[in-house]
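__Record contents__

***
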Amino acid sequence: MTIKIISFIKAKLNLIINLFFIILTLSCSNHIEFDDSKIFRYNESKNITSLDPAFARNLQNLWPIQQMFNSLVQLDDSLNVKPELAKKWNISTDGLTYEFTIRDDVFFHKSIHFGDSLTRRVVASDMTYSFNRLKDKNIGSPGGWVLKNVKDYRAKNDSTFIIILKKPFPAFLSLLSMRYCSVVPKEVADFYKEDFRNNPIGTGPFKFKNWKENVKLVLRKNNNYFEKDSLGKKLPLLESISISFLPDIQSEFMLFTQGKLDFINSIDSSYKDDLLTPNGLLQKKYKSDIKMLKGPYLNTEYIGFYLKSNSNSIKSDLIREAMNIGFDRKKMILYLRNNIGFPALQGFIPKGLSGHKTLKSIKYEPEKAKRLVKKFVKNNKILPKITLATDAGYVDLCEFFQREMEKIGIEIKIEIMPTATLKQAKSNGKVESFRASWIADYPDAENYLSLFSSTNHSPFGPNYTHFKNQLFDSLYDKSFETINLKNRNKIYEKMNSIIMENLPVIPLYYDQTTRFVRKNVKNFPINPINLIKLKKVYKDKIE
């Protein structure tokens, strides 16, 4: 008991110290002379590892990189491809050659490396350099895969950049919107080499000011930015972005409710019930100061089966079907997630993407599930038993599933692993079933369906289930050759249905983007890939 009291006191002391420290850093804005309504503040509980767009592999890196860099194209909040560095483009009739016309009013942020002018206009050869850098093994960017289908690229002249693909890929423009594909200046990146991570020079609406790792990152307005809003007003509208690095989630929430942070992303179980009602609505005490933004998030949570397992239960179509219809997804979302998310009733492709529907919606049918289990037992003379691997963050979800399966006669043993261990075991076929999620790298259903192509069997690809279906594979290949979006979506829907007929996975729920912002924050975006784009955001003054 004494040890528990000491541990409790230590935890509270650490919380107080962390709060004092973060309030101190939030109060010190590097002598910025403008008022608080011009500064956007948020906390990043995870460490940023790099501000180099070649390493924009996770949200904590991506969010500040998004503010400082531009790619050839961008996605709007409805995931439509729009011009960015390229003001227009042409695609050849065979879908292989892309010709981009580069804007002539885009300039890199000021830097001592540009000589007397302190800046330089972006030209097409900068894209050639940036793509070369993305593929450079000495740099080791995790985003090199974006160019794996690219046969050649070159600058035709200062204003024209050409990309030639190995084979047609209708989602290629969406890939180019990723910040991996940002333009960077050769003279600066070559000078700093690996230290470009903390000396970033881009073209974005905000420019790098300073970064004290694990303490604070400050970005300032780029007065030379090329984009304008719909009213013709020059962007960005904010003067500064201030990012703190407090690891304690509860402290972050406390600072947000006190108005010292402008935004928090998603929701943590430690304060979920304080902030939301059981039905997922904002608690009354917060409604005057906070607004909640919700929308589809391109993430499918699922249970996967390694189909080459020796387990008769895993191999059985009867058991996989029983598991698919034997639990109530709506109840799961209500009780475990306060209605944050959508029950996965339409296959593997998540809500928010074309192709998100199947020929038949999944229904909760526990009595039919019981009959399927009994048939399995009669045929095999054994009771169905399955070991389900997960990490610590999803134990509650797996325990819910375990209880639901027990009701229909299936025994589930939960095996908890460290996240990295689970990922490796899943990739190497060392677990017979596993809880997993798939978050879209780019907004096209192909990103999800690639998990079931026989050419992508792990460990060399993302097909962890080792599913193989001849019709599916032929449709997958055909989708690359189908340029017409309507026709391609029909192919995606058929492929989605094939997955749900064979059940190498059981989709649990489609995730939801949930953001909480202070009421005085305006134009704050929400989109299905959870990007933060602050160039159009502004804040009303609080009197």
About this structure: The chain is about 30% helix and 20% strand. Residues 1-11, 27-32 have pLDDT under 50 and may be disordered. The radius of gyration is 25 Å. The longest helix spans residues 2-27.
